[in-house]
Records
---
Amino acid sequence: MGKIYEKAMTEEEIREALKDDPVLAEEPGPTAPATIQEELERADKLYGEAVNYAKSFMDNVREGKPFDFQDATPLVNDLIDSVFRNDSATAAISKLKAFDEYTYTHCINVSVLAVILGKRLGYSREKLEMVGMAGMFHDVGKAIIPPHILNKPGALTDKEMDVMRTHPVHGYKLLKEQPDIPEEIIRGAMEHHEKHDGSGYPRGLKGEQISEIARLLAVVDVYDALTSKRVYKDPLPPGKVLAMMYKWRVTDFYPDIVEQFIKSLGVYPVGSFVRLSTGEHGVVTDHSPEHPLNPVVRICYDERMRPELKRDVNLAEDPDLRITDVINPDEHGVDIFKLIQ
């Protein structure tokens, strides 16, 4: 990956991405709001249950056993409730806890992130459920891919990549067999690797040819893939991945959808490990749409990464402090989940 993508967004890019737009009235939440800390505890338990469910249905497909997509409905609704209580906590939990088996966690992460983006876009509860279900099953076709390719700890050969790129078609075929499944969920599995400029796969669709839900899935799928630890790579910091995606927004993604995704997560998503202008290091614990460049940061380390007394600082209220870089916590052995609780 070239150096141009190793930096967080510039202030100019941030201003452009976060410029005012008229279309974003979120529906009122069905549950009472919760603090980050309150929802992290609930989301932690819910996320573990969700990963177990994903493992169950993916393993069933791999073994040729039947599965019923409607079994996921209660779980998806629980995830939607969590998003409405505190979407920052729900988004953060997938990056703050260590779970094995990317194939399973990726199903849950894409479901959650797609719901968060749909909430930002003002989707109804019914439509959010559709989005969450589509995210849950978008990669079901990977259960058909041979494990030695799916879990290979290194770059795939051209031939192996051709096999990997069949998973949307496998997903389409598997979901087509489900009674009463909405077409939007099937198309989400088939089209989430299509790109706005027509350079995606499997059919090279472009622009309006790609279904609305698949456009959402395309964004969150890339984000989760790049911010997740894989057998062949370390995770990239969320803030830097958003910068990468902002640079790709014209070719890869539907107009304005990356900007809305950035607005939904924040320029520095909760859980981001950052360096401040003082040289100190800390973790983002909250953010405000009104102050996208100035989240709340829990300062935990000095400029030499030595632990110091933790203190929370709202950068919006301290003009002398600003974020200068986004750091990969794994490189310093930092457990973000412990810091943020």
---
Amino acid sequence: MRALQLVEPQRAELSQVPDPEPAPGEVVLAVTGAGVCHSDLHMLHARRVVFPLPLVLGHEVAGTVAAVGEGVSGWETGAGALVHLCWGCGRCRACVAGADNYCDAHPRRTVPGPGLGHPGGMADRIAVPARHLVPLGDLDPVAAAPLTDAGLTPYHAVAVSRSRITPSSTVAVIGVGGLGHVAVQVLRATTGATVVAVDTDEARLRSAEELGADRALLSDEQTAPALLGLTGGAGVDVVLDFVGAPATVALAGDVVRSGGQVTLVGLAAGTLAHTAAPPPIGLPWGVSVVKPYGGTRRELAEVLALSRAGRISVEVERAPLSDALAVLDRLERGQVRGRAVLVP
């Protein structure tokens, strides 16, 4: 079968590899769609890769059951499925509580998953432990693939911020691209908060307003004063930063209110500076900083429920698997709106 493999650090190629066979407890999916994410670019550009190579990329995966391994029940050939992002051990304290995304078998590290330690979905087929599958139901088998990350990750980011989000709250969403545009929808669908979208791209800001943002601010030197002005100088209750660059992380620290929360999702190497001294030095009193990862299987089911109800969706561009390298190049150039999905 065809598979986009990271064959060595900073080099990927579309290769022919053997078809996977289901081990006991596994299901093989015929891939119907694999989302392309900035995390794939991080993997591609890393000088040192922590996972064994070669590795098939792709962590946003939808497919139909092609083969079922020994001991698997509840899955029949032809059934549609989505693959959960985080493959926890299923036995530790975190996993037993449902938080596979923070599995103790991988202490203080990234919990592996498809394309992130295990063979991913940018291929014709993928083998998946059955416990990491979620039924697709009547969702589109291509367009639904990004819900496993572009839907799940912002949903979880909102979930871990929810104690600070009420109908009187203001939430700033920095970066309304692949993940941020879903965060706007999740906030609109599940909270009564005032949602302010922040981005450098005017087209993305217009889209964010169409998706439910109450205000849209172009990211520049006037953004912090504007956010403070919108809140009477108090600052915003929650900042969801889906960029994580130095400038956006600094902005988050400059505009969060006392008792608020900065939720850092983006991975663009920004540093949140904090000096342990009374305000106005450092962060305001009572501020929490959270670094969420992925989400739980329960949260993925809730994302799918919102999608089926028409409350959230991911803007999707479809491309053939054979164009995978070109799509990654377009993503790096900022030429993809929403999510690109590779179709075998």
---
Amino acid sequence: MTTHAPCETALAMSRAATPAGTGRPAPSVARDVVALATRAPSLHNTQPWRWRIVSDDVLELFAAHDRQLRVLDPRGRLMTLSLGAALHHAMVAARAVDRAVTVERFPVGGPPDLVARLHLGEVVHAGPAERIALSSLVARRTDRRPFSSWELPEDRLRHLGELAASYGVTTVRLDARQRVAVERLVAAAAGHHDGSPLTAGELAEWWGGDREGAGVPGALVPDRLLDPLGIGRCEGGALEVDAPDDCASQHTAVLALCHPDDSPDGWLATGEAMSAVWLEAVSEGLGMVPVSLPVEVAEVRVRLREDVLGLLAHPQLLLQVGWPHTASARLAPSPRRPLDDVIVP
């Protein structure tokens, strides 16, 4: 099991020390929680969130609609998944710095862009599980390079599925036939994007080249494609792939995260589940990368649901899971917006 101890973790914990005898959060705790929550993954690293520190023990998470991909994600579904990941990251951070936390999701009577309100409660000292989760949060990367050919233990995949189920999310592991079908859907969705000047233009605003604060820099995009699931997202960048051409992608698992409620409630829950599964995978030494192309195009998503999965539940996102290749050097983190840009009055 991975036991990272990055300096950022120690800093957050030291700043979050509880005032002696008060049992109440220190003034810096709320800001520390937000800082760690901003590490959450988001569609094309758009970081579509804003946070408001109401008091030392109340935080509010808002959707930043000006960062929504209006062409690619007109309903805001993938934006809301990203917000769910940020919410889960905040909960992990709060518990790791010794705070109980309760959440109101889509609070009644709040403004339309208010997604969640977090209440930091009394001191509840974190145990090993909470510390490991926070270390995984800091260590997590979106690594688009090929995975290794090591076999994945079935018990670990079952555990990830059970974890997702605790958020009301059904996890379907694709078999060989389904995987081939999904590879075709990835290619179809990529072709749709390439043929749409509006979509291509929107993607260009967030993808490749030099990036500061948000988006996916070319330095984090592989220079060549070895896995059909990475079409359009894992090629053409500046990140050298130091792996053999026969790097066996078939030894990875592809998990479809599905929810019966195709509304903001279901989208948010799926985002929370994605974050929980990802951090658990990191703690076990596994790598994970989202595959969103098949759910970005409406008609392709319908084909995924009806022709490939055959489910009543709605596919929200695919996750590819595998062992990182031993030849792969550790990646730098994706760029993040300044904290003062994220926190609003």
---
Amino acid sequence: LQYCASEGHLGLRKHIIEFLKAENIAVHDDDILITVGAQQALDLIGKIFIDKNDTILTESPSYVGALNAFLGYGAKIETVPLDNNGLQVNKLKEKLKTLKKKPKFLYSVPNFHNPAGVTMSKKRRHDLIELAEKEDLLIIEDNAYSMLGFNPDDKFPALRSLSEDVIYLGTFSKIFFAPGARLGWVVAPKAVLEKLLLAKQAADLCTGTLSQVITEEYLNLKPWRPRVKQMTKIYENKKDVMLGALEKYFPKDTSWTKPKGGFYIWVKLPYFVDTTQMLAEAINEKVAFVPGNNFYPDDDGKNFIRLSYCLPEAKEIEQGIKRLGQVVKSRIELYRSFKKYR
């Protein structure tokens, strides 16, 4: 096997065109750059856009891999809060008025957010595109979980489908459940894609040909829609088990999101619980989570945890949440006992 084109193996790019059609995104093969996972795409975006102390915008919380990629190039990250309907566009509008420097871009995970599990409403998507056009704000749309919605009647338009100025990131890791293949892609305006291609060539010349050809052949032989439907149903069942276990085993003064797709549930604990400190105790009980402060560029989110239901079996989820609930309860009881006798 030889090197392939820096843009990526043509046969695989043609499959990506078909995936994007499902989201009403029309592209040609020369609009696509295949990367070593979507994580490399984030790094390349940081490389071509960010100079030290440049301002960028992310949601709060945001994907830790994106934060690390952007911080690695010296970005100053300003955040915009989420609620159950995703990015609060009105808060973004207010934030833009207060910034002294124009932000290089806004990074957003509109579908089945990592880590928050929420999804941006249709109205907010249209409002966001309208605001971005008015303010000349570039949007990076990370749509790793796009096809993993639990209700097929829910239609959430991709931001890229609403504006060709949006830079769109996708991945095979989540859709086809093969993260080890390390294959992602970028769709971007021509001028941006040219810069990304130069950065890609400087980084590694091209994404590995072998993994691309194997993935192409798999997609030639196996219809992808039934596979996505099958796996999404499995994830939905696991999500229901985890939500039921949280209701059953977690104390009343906790709360959590109820995802419409994807892999994650975002749990809020009382303000005095430091989940980084709590992690060691949880691991002793053979259960793990990701502490919330990892998903913020500052020291926020200490009382949040991200839970994932994609890998464990239903029985393991039930038992794990039961154990974790006991750890949370003991932390709360310890704090209240200490406060009582101070």
